[in-house]
Amino acid sequence: MTKAPFTKPSNPRILTINGGSSSIKFGMFEAGDSLQRILEGGIGRIGLPQPIFRVKGSDQANFSRPVAAPDHTAAVSVLMDWIEERSRQDALTAVGHRVVNGGPKYYKPQRITAEMVAEFQRLSAFDPDHMPEEIQLTEAFHHRFPDLPQVACFDTAFHHDLPRVAQLLPIPRRYEAQGVRRYGFHGLSYAFLIEELARMAGPEAAQGRVILAHLGNGASLAAVHHGKSVDTSMSFTPAAGVPMSTRSGDLDPGLVWYLARTEKMSAKQFNEMVNFQSGLLGVSETSSDMRDLLKREPEDKRAAEAVAFFCYQVKKWIGAFAAALGGVDTLVFAGGIGENAPPVRARICEGLGFLGIELEEKRNAGNEGVISATDSRVAVRVIRTDEELMIAKIVCQVLGLGCKNQEGELNHEDRYAQS
User: Fold this and answer.
1) For the chain, what is the radius of gyration of the CA atoms?
2) Does the pLDDT value for residue 152 go beyond 70?
3) What is the pLDDT of residue 267?
4) Are strands 34-44 and 52-57 parallel, antiparallel or unpaired?
5) From CA 242, how far away is CA 148, in angstroms rounded?
6) Would you please indicate which residues are annotated as catalytic (active-site) residues?
7) Cα 280 to the chain's mean position, in Å?
8) Looking at the DSSP assignment, which residues form a beta bridge with residue 39?
9) What structural domains and CATH numbers belong to the chain?
10) What is the mean pLDDT of residues 90-114?
11) 245-254: average pLDDT
12) Is pLDDT above 70 for 8?
């Protein structure tokens, strides 16, 4: 995989790719004087019954149809065929990939090379649920479109310069030489949120003491000061921190040895449990979807406990990050749950008046941009995050496409379960 010479076209088209363990999401942007979204879509339920390929666009490219996607190989082939067919109308200029973890070596966004892909393969052990699929996507694009520039956008970049005390893990130091440290994730979302906060509330707000809560299928929080990450809840993998839809969040490591002795549970089985059978699903035993649990909680004790547990754990992290920051000026809710679940936001903020956090009930119920009370010392905001747009902006910067701003956003029908 070599870097072909790049010449800026008159009508640049950027494709953003966000690969997950059971989905591939994408967006297409036109990069001129402004960055304009043309379409977005994805292939969901990969490896599960009834995979669906959806596209929503500002033109006539709107459809939802079942596809054969028993694994990522088949799903990538479906996506490549569609891109190749559409490229006859709109030639692609570049592809931007969300890469979960580039390890200690790769964190700055840059064009993908063969050397980088080799490092990704070595790092697959860091995140076996995401990295192999991301490698497969980059290689598939290279084989179909060998001259098309591909840019890696690292989800860990926002947290790369964490203070040393926040990076360290309390295990023998020899593992640090292998790249074992706190990396943190959701960095593309956090970078976007800080930019949006500066745009909406001014540079001073973005430079202040900010707690960002990205709450969706995957959930994490970040403490930010002077626009830089001070600490974050996810750690060496995205399974750490607060409980999520199916991920456990932080656990007593003694459970590994206990379950190995009592149930003969292997390391692989333990990984499967904490990533795909835990969190909201594990506590409720019925659903990983916060919407379902809120509906069921009046008559389902397990659903009620799952919601209460989630809100309690997020509240604890807000308190911890307020301590790390020496106070808090702004609290931002984002992600599918954070943007669309007023009861969850209310329960998280309940009792945080001692930190200066007070919600205004009607503003919160209406999902307004600012949901804090007029006399609240802390501004509490709801900001719709957009990782795909952030990827497109980064590609513009890396390739020198000169995009100044963005416009023409598509309406999102369902952002509730955003990763």
Assistant:
1) 21
2) yes
3) 96
4) antiparallel
5) 39
6) 155
7) 18
8) 28, 57
9) 13-154+388-407 (3.30.420.40), 201-382 (3.30.420.40)
10) 93
11) 97
12) no
